[in-house]
Amino acid sequence: VTETTAAIEAYRFNDAAGAVYRFVWNVFCDWYLELAKPLLTGEDEAIKTETRATAAWTLDVIFKLLHPFMPFLTEELWAIKGAEGPRRENLLVLSDWPSLDGLGDPEAEAEVGWVVDLVTEVRSVRSEMNVPAGAQVPLSLVGADAAIKQRATDWGETIRRLARISEISFAPAAPAGSAQMLVRGLTVAMPLAGAIDISAEKARLSKEIGKLDGEAKKIEAKLGNADFLTRAKEEVVEENRERLEDARAKIAKMTVALERLG
């Protein structure tokens, strides 16, 4: 809301639309709905009611934020949703712009943010390490304090479900054969023995890094050739620069993955 409002007031309408898009897709759909699923399918009716109410309120905010960019569609959705609940006082176009004054909760933001960062990092490392999508792997929180342990316990089921983790444990040091990552200052270890062939994965990564390095050097030589830069079309030169940047990014990513394996 804050980002979208500031962008609209500054006439940066593309930034405003982008901010709403990211919130709807990356926050509400990717995370809120995923975190809400077990609550909505649980047996606690009070929690179900609260979760539905929060989702409904958030949808109203989303309609308001999107209205300047999609007026007719959001007005229709506003009316359809209003028919299922309390009577709307106004058309969407006449409704107040959303405000978050007094709604901030830094502790809740920090807690949920930690869960999101942890799951995101674990998913990323799983992908880098070629861990099979269906494989359940353990997770070890290294040197976790009491607050982190409580947080991991409270959110354990969610973390295991979203990151496909078999168990969460606490240890003073990372177990051998683990891929390690840093999440908000906490070292998180993911033992990979049994999930992948570590030696084979090291060999694969080393081979791929070597191949990409060779390609990068060829492109560097081409871009360092004054004759090529003079004769080639600008779009060809730019294409080679992009290829070089892409190769370097892949090398850096795979190097990190190789280092994670020790």
What would you note in describing this structure?
This protein is α+β, with helices and mostly antiparallel strands and 262 residues long. The protein folds into three domains: 2-94, Isoleucyl-tRNA Synthetase, Domain 1, CATH 1.10.730; 106-191, hypothetical protein PF0899 fold (2-Layer Sandwich); 198-260, Helix Hairpins (Orthogonal Bundle). 65% of the residues lie in helices and 10% in strands. It contains ten helices and four strands. The protein has helices spanning 2-9, 13-40, 45-66, 71-82, 106-128, 146-154, 156-163, 198-223, 226-231, 234-260, and strands at 137-142, 165-171, 178-183, 186-191. A four-stranded mixed beta sheet has the order 2-1-4-3. Helix 1 (2-9) packs antiparallel against helix 2 (13-40) and helix 8 (198-223) runs antiparallel to helix 10 (234-260). The protein is flat and about 65 Å long. The mean pLDDT is 91.
Report the end-to-end length measured between terminal Cα atoms: 43 Å
Widest β-sheet, arrangement of strands: 2-1-4-3
Give the C-alpha Rg. 24 Å
Q: Give the biggest sheet.
A: 4 strands, mixed
Total number of distinct structural domains: 3
Strand content: 5-15%
| Number of separate strands | 4
Please give the count of helices. Answer: 10
Based on secondary structure, the structural category is alpha+beta
Which CATH class of the largest domain is shown?
Mainly Alpha
Task: From the 3D structure, determine the CATH topology of the largest domain.
Answer: Isoleucyl-tRNA Synthetase, Domain 1
Mean pLDDT: 91
Series of secondary-structure elements, N-terminal to C-terminal: HHHHHEHHEEEHHH
What helical percentage do the residues reach?
55-70%
CATH architecture title of the largest domain: Orthogonal Bundle
Shape: flat
Superfamily (CATH H level) name of the largest domain = Isoleucyl-tRNA Synthetase, Domain 1
Q: Detail the poorly predicted runs.
A: none
